[in-house]
Amino acid sequence: MLSNIHRRIAMVSLADSRIEINAIAITLQCSVLTVRRCIQRSRMTGDIHERTRSGRPALYSEEERLRIVAFYCQIQPLPNSGRWSLRWAARRLLADPTKIDVSPSKSTLHRILQSNRLKPHRSRYFLHITDPDFFPKMEHLIALYRKPPRRLFFFDECPGIQVLKRLTPDLQTDNMRQRLEEFEYIRNGTLDVFAFLHHADGKVGMECHADHTASTFAGVFRRHAVQFSKDEPLHYVMDNLSTHRGYAFCQVVAELSGIACPPERNLITQAKRVQWLCREDKRIVIHFTPYHGSWLNLVEIWFGIMGGKVLSESFGAPEHLKAALEAFVDDWNLLLAHPFRWSYDGKGLHDKAVKRFGTMLRNSAAMMELRTLAKQLRLMTNLLQDYFSEVTEETWHQLAVAVSSQSAVVAELIQREGGPRQKKNAQQALDGLITALKFRSISTKELAAA
User: Fold this and answer.
1) Is 312 found in the same domain as 198?
2) What's the predicted TM-score (pTM) here?
């Protein structure tokens, strides 16, 4: 975050370069009036420094403010868990001021955090990239979306939707007609929803079932594919659920493509089945999203819309929910359907993935699950080998420092692992990353000695 003096220097420099005042204000995140006043003052007096201010001097020095920020953002109130509230943190520091040698009030804590635009009390979900081959798979899908075939469908299933009925009917307030919903509900079973989103027009084909077994999925897929001419190529994007990569599904794809399915002994492993399903020398081609890459599947957008429009209602039986879903799909296809245009190009994600893993390794290596850690190590190795230029030199150096500082912790995690195969895979992943870092000449003294 820029200090006031550096922000004023930037304002004057940008103005001298004939950048418009509105653009300067947006770039530096301040008001147009502030920019205009700073430029005028600089041109009239040549001075951009702080003027002497009246009032009480600052209660806390910059060093003390930094200690307050570090305490609130980096120290957890409970053993390896919890997040402070302003009141909780203020009372903890008042009860034990020796922790950081200051005891600010709740309002002072709030002002210091706000001045640095910090909101550590807030959280949101994200999908951490764990697939070592995430980026080649992502590039394949993005290229597919930019030049889509005529029949491109996005498929996914939403399993185990709870059918909930509230104890009393909804009411509305007298003035604003706001809906009042009963808090308590009764569970009336579950329902699985299968949906196909057509890329060309955004229309949806949907089926509801009581389960999502391999035979159920095969039947849903077959009924969708037979709607089209037998010689028309069909492309499907879907996730890596085991039923999507089973031999039974390979048989269905082969039958609908009018070709013989390879013997099961030739498709004995999941990797071989995936490779065959992705082959483009047959009528039906399957495109799999990366692991933890469901956001690359456009039907997830439609599921979000469907959830907001339908699933928040009260239903007494699975049949009632099914009827509501089918009615919504009818209205969607008639009135609301539209193509979802993909614009994301993946720029910056490589650097972000390395930064996140470096931070996780540096702060929480001992808490990581070994199988996930091994995948992350292989992902970093692949990025070093194939996407080195997409990540800044500083980020690579930070990763090298994190690997060298936490190598003993990772080695202990590997030694504690009981499974010999998983232990071997994790050790190979760690050795591979250290070798790749050395090969790229991104090393610290510890790595050089490893």
Assistant:
1) yes
2) 0.80
